[in-house]
Design goal:
Elements: E1 2-4, E2 23-30, E3 49-52, E4 56-65, E5 70-79, E6 85-92, E7 96-100, E8 105-106, E9 111-119, E10 123-131, E11 140-144, E12 153-160, E13 166-172, E14 180-187, E15 190-198, E16 205-209
């Protein structure tokens, strides 16, 4: 069984002129390893994923970017069995360079938090328990999505002047981790790319007239 914790949002780009009520815009920040971005109607600073079976539980409790393209994942592991197990870590579409603590042993009914350092990109981290006396768990999958790898928008607004021109304004906390900005427009159910421009890695405040 896999359970995913829900999270709340703190910032919104839903203040498009509601009298028009037809067009919505989003700003996507794309890094070197990012292939897809969701609608950014809200952001959170972290996301938590929980996955478990009858023998093992894994919780992604935080993510912290360090240098561009690199970050730290903290995963809390719980041994639900009354015997000692060994944790077997693997990953897909990203590389983990270091795991601490280095011991893969998790004692009976014990909980420990592991720090994994590696690529800051969309992929999967998987973990499995191998127990000599009580058997193996299933392979638990922790998806590393763009909700886990957020770019924090400090503020964002969308306005329309009397001539119908739309201006999208936003401030970003760390432009050094962004390569491109994309502004999309949605009218009804149709989504189209309006503007794409390169991030200079320095500028934090933008005001783009479409």
């Amino acid at each position: 069984m896999i359970a995913i914790s829900l999270f709340s949002c703190s910032k919104s780009m839903d203040n498009v002129d509601n009298e028009q009520g037809k067009e919505w815009y989003r700003v996507s920040a794309i890094g070197a390893d990012t292939s897809y971005t969701p609608w950014m109607l809200a952001r959170t600073e972290s996301a938590i994923f929980t996955t478990e079976d009858g023998k093992l539980k894994a919780e992604l409790i935080s993510y912290q970017p360090t240098t561009p393209g690199y970050g730290i994942y903290k995963i809390k592991m719980t041994n639900k069995q009354a015997c000692q197990i060994h944790l077997r870590w693997h990953w897909e579409d990203l590389t983990i360079d270091n795991i601490t603590p280095t011991s893969d042993v998790l004692h009976a009914n014990d909980t420990a938090t592991y720090t994994l350092t590696g690529d800051s990109r969309v992929g999967k981290i998987t973990v499995k328990a191998e127990g000599v006396s009580c058997g193996n768990s299933s392979t638990l999958v922790i998806p590393i999505t763009l909700s886990v790898l957020p770019v924090k928008y400090i503020s964002n607004t969308t306005t329309r002047d009397k001539g119908g021109k739309v201006t999208v304004s936003f401030n970003i906390d760390d432009p050094s981790i962004v390569d491109w900005f994309v502004i999309d427009k949605m009218k009804g159910t149709e989504v189209s790319q309006d503007t794409i421009f390169k991030c200079d890695k320095i500028t934090k405040s933008y005001s783009i007239k479409l």
